[in-house]
Amino acid sequence: MADQSRWLSTAQTAQLLGVKPATVYAYVSRGQLTRHPGADPRTSRFDRAEVQRLAARARRGGRAGALDVVLDTELSLLDPAGALYYRGRDATRLAGSAGFEQVAELLWTGTLPDTAPEWTASTEALIAGRAAQTGLPAAVRPADRFRVTAAAVAATDPLRYDRRPAAVAATGRALIAALVDTLPRRAAPHDGTVAARLWAASTDRAPTVPELRAFDAALVLSADHELAASALATRVAASVRADPYLAVLAGLATLGGALHGGVVGAVESVLTDLAPGGRGVAELVGERLAAGESVPGFGHAVYTGTDPRAVALLRLVTDAAGGPPLGGLLDELVEVVGRHGGPAPTSDLALGVLAAEFRLAPGTAEAVFTLGRVAGLIGHTVEEYRHRFRFRPRAVYTGPDPDDSQA
Predict the structure, then answer these.
(1) In CATH, what number is assigned to the domain containing residue 47?
(2) What UniProt keywords apply to this chain's record, in alphabetical order (predicted)?
(3) How many domains does the chain have?
């Protein structure tokens, strides 16, 4: 007779991992846990040894020393095969049918409004945000300005410690408005949307309707991506009851890392080198390979198929451009990098292509990604405030043995 103690039910597996049953199946979808049919094919069972290994990896660090942190969220669902959903709605379809403000409201409240009012910041917030930037060099990138502004405007809000969901959503609207409206403007906004206001800070050229549609869609597609490092940082801050501004700042600080939002800036640099008349595609890719480097904007850590955000956004950019982006150089780059089963484009590449094709100021691609992601960080803040303090990781000490004889 088989050893029945080998098998765990879904409920037992969830208990051992310290997660909800639904999260167990998230592990299955990511290939981190194997589901076996139970006596009744409609039920599941899991190998105890495999579950214990997964639990140990979450405590001590997974492959390559990476911690595997899994939290429940209602905000976004990432399907590694190539799909992304915001509260059960396909994010790529939302990008084509709803504006950024509407999608942010969906993330914060669970309801997608038919329209969204223009978001505004208080006069005090705008004054503080602009004053904080007066000492910055003119060439400072928008994403860095966002971090300075977020810290400054927080001090103008005497009610920032109101952690009720409706209050945090109101803070999110005002904060995003302050971030975009304190940027140095190059032109008057085309309209009152966040996309139009950010566009006016990125170029003195008025957008075409397809260009502004793609720009707004880029914000939508950047809004959230499950439990990215910036979302986790925001949740840790929110878990100790930091106010929403500080929680977002924790996320913005993490977002600025070279392996997170900084990838978008690296993509911008590569595309600048690929401008017509510059180095050839094969030459540029070859130089990076010779240096032991990859081409930024290709190969996602989670998606095993295509990045759906990249596919959707590149399609919109192509439509707005009326032909192949970057004079066909993008197609050549994708072909060269993707040869022999190479990596597929990511949303980082798509954002860089959008900024290059529309001739927007340096740093715009990163600004779109960062401003869009603030919506998701606010959503994670709202969710985390529902929980009691729950982040107290323990370390496994690997230093010298304690020496009690030393003073």
Answers:
(1) 1.10.1660.10
(2) Transferase
(3) 2
